[in-house]
Design brief:
The chain has about 90 residues and is mainly alpha-helical. The chain has one domain. The N and C termini lie far apart (about 75 Å).
Length: about 90
Amino acid sequence: VQFPICRKHDPCEDTMQYCISRLRELHERRQQGEANVDSVHFHCMALAAKVRILGAEEQVAALHEMDRIVYEFQERRLQERTQTDHMYHK
């Protein structure tokens, strides 16, 4: 079956436009969702803005202090997991 070639309107163009509009829509939804859901990213960016106004040495000290605090949380979490795992294996 052959379809007549229509030079005024290309059905492929409609399909491409539809696909592009859907991709844009999905991309926008994803970006909005990430902005609303990712509170860690939001808080990190807020902290980064505060750190940037400090002097160079203060920035390094602040970053090391934040890293130390996060490390302590990670270490505590690992210890809790280890203790929980030992309880189940007794």
